[in-house]
Recover the amino acids of this structure.
């Protein structure tokens, strides 16, 4: 695992500041952390630092003078080709051409660990995503949840965290009872009984179909038992079947969980009642209006009900969602000992974020160990028009329908293209278009084209595993491609530290574009230039590896042919 070039540049500039101080070119002052960024204009080099702009008061001279002294005292570094002072006092750094070319071999040597970092240092992080009520098919909004969560888990693992992926099964509470009542009604109706459908029951063809299946499998067995017993039994069976379908749908989307955690276990274990007493003893619980309320200074005057007959009238059903969240955060951070718990929730849960953090703090936990990512909804488009209805479910577009139409890879890529706080439009027509307009096709085609180049070289008798003289890689398009390959490490760091996996899609397109430009400008296999051919074949293998790595970080396939 390699240290980020950006951090090496920052350390170099920090060393230059201290060296200038040691010889008296700069006065004594505390050397700050050095900020390094990528310049917007390529002529300004590979990296730029505005740190000297912040030192004018401490050094009692202009930022440009400071920068000139720092540059004059920078120690030599094999990765630095040129340093320059620009504008009012920026330090611009350009990477050395020979060093860049040598990195192609290092990329290949890293293999499938290319892009891996040690930022996490083995900290245990749990990422919980999905967690839809197990009362119906998974839909497109849910798909954004699981794609975000799963990709973030991939990135965190690549950044050196020990990651566990969890699906929280909401199988406690009144929604389970209502689901059972809905299934019972459809079951009885399938047997010819005039059973009324419950008010606020679960509509949709999938409930009708499941009721028909129960009628075929069980006959009139549940017509001869008490209603409550029958609805609970069918509700549990229905949830199991919904979860079985969900597991398969998610697996087909490339998502496999380490743990399926059942909400009801928080109550069956007695954990909730135990923590409720702890909060009561600490003064965080208030009883009034016949309800139990959680209060906290972190919530100001916003008391939150956690148990109320008006909210959950059936005594043995789960209290409110916050009640489960209180027990669940304790289970994660204390009983299972995760260093951090990451939740992926829809934006409609924004009001619950401060409540969960306040509950964690009330339990003596650091609320910073809780991170909740909120994402906005997804609008499906076809022919410029909204797509709202599902032929099967009757009320929403299911994940299975979407996968059947466009496939898993376009779903994963396109659901990552926007920041989580942006409502996004999923263009069904674009998702299946095989052209450069489709970013999924554009990126995967770059990988397939490289594979084709390498196969062609083999057919012509070239040994594509042979070493090459990488110093021959001096064409500008070659160097641009190498620079972009090396940027993967920084993208992994950015996505992991900011919980922003959308950066992967932008990087993937830029990497593909760098390859396509190289392919336009540089002939790979040339019998008249065997040494250069061997060097470029090594470059192609490294580029294919980089593309494969970013595709797999996004949970996508890296096709050899298209």
């Amino acid at each position: 695992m390699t240290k980020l070039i950006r951090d090496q540049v920052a350390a170099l500039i920090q060393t230059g500041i201290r060296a200038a101080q040691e010889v008296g070119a700069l006065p004594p002052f505390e050397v700050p952390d050095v900020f390094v960024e990528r310049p917007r204009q390529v002529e300004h080099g590979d990296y730029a630092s505005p740190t000297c702009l912040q030192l004018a008061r401490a050094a009692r001279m202009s930022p440009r003078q400071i920068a000139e002294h720092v540059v004059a005292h920078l120690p030599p570094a094999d990765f630095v080709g040129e340093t320059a002072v620009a504008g009012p006092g920026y330090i611009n750094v350009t990477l050395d051409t020979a060093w860049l070319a040598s990195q192609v071999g290092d990329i290949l040597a890293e293999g499938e660990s290319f892009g891996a970092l040690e930022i996490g240092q083995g900290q245990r992080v749990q990422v919980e995503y999905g967690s839809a009520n197990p009362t119906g098919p998974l839909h497109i909004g849910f798909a954004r949840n699981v794609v975000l969560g799963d990709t973030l888990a991939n990135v965190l693992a690549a950044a050196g965290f020990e990651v566990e992926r969890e699906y929280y099964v909401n199988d406690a509470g009144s929604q389970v009872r209502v689901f059972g009542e809905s299934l019972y009604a459809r079951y009885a109706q399938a047997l010819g009984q005039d059973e009324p459908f419950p008010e606020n029951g679960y509509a949709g063809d999938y409930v009708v179909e499941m009721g028909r299946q129960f009628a075929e499998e069980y006959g009139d067995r549940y017509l001869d038992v008490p209603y409550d017993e029958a609805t609970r039994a069918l509700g549990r069976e229905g949830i199991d079947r919904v979860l079985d379908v969900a597991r398969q749908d998610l697996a087909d989307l490339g998502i496999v969980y380490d743990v399926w955690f059942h909400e009801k276990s928080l109550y069956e274990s007695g954990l909730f009642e135990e923590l409720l007493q702890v909060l009561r003893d600490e003064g965080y619980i208030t009883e009034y209006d016949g309800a139990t309320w959680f209060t906290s200074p972190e919530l100001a005057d916003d008391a939150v009900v956690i148990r109320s007959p008006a909210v959950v009238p059936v005594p043995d059903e789960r209290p409110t969602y916050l009640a489960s969240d209180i027990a669940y955060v304790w289970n994660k951070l204390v009983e299972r000992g995760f260093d951090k718990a990451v939740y992926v929730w829809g934006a409609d849960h924004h009001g619950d974020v401060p409540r969960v953090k306040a509950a964690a703090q009330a339990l003596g936990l650091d609320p910073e160990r809780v991170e909740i990512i909120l994402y906005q909804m997804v609008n499906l488009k076809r022919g410029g028009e909204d797509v709202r209805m599902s032929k099967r479910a009757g009320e929403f577009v299911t994940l299975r329908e979407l996968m059947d139409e466009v496939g898993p890879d376009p779903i994963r890529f396109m659901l990552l293209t926007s920041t989580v706080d942006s409502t996004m439009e999923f263009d069904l027509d674009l998702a299946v278009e095989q052209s450069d307009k489709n970013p999924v096709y554009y990126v995967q085609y770059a990988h397939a084209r490289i594979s084709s180049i390498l196969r062609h070289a083999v057919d012509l008798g070239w040994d594509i595993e042979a070493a090459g003289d990488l110093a021959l890689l001096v064409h500008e398009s070659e160097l641009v491609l190498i620079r972009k390959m090396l940027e993967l490490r920084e993208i992994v760091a950015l996505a992991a530290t900011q919980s922003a996996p959308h950066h992967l899609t932008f990087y993937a397109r830029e990497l593909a574009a760098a390859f396509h430009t190289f392919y336009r400008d540089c002939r790979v296999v040339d019998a008249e230039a065997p040494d250069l051919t061997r060097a470029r074949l090594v470059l192609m293998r490294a580029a294919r590896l980089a593309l494969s790595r970013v595709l797999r970080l996004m949970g996508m396939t890296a096709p050899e042919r298209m």
Notes: DSSP finds 20 helices and 14 strands in the chain. Residues 378-432 form one domain.
